[in-house]
Amino acid sequence: MILPIVAFGNPILRLKAQEINQNYDNLDILIEDMWETMYNAKGVGLAAPQIGKSIRVFIVDASPFAEDEGLELSERKKIIGFKKVFINPIIVSQSSKLCSFNEGCLSIPDVRENVKREDQIEINFFDQNFNEQTLKIDGLRARVVQHEYDHIEGILFTDKISSFKRKIITNKLKNISSGKISVPYPMSFDK
Question: Is 148 designated active site?
Answer without folding.
Answer: yes
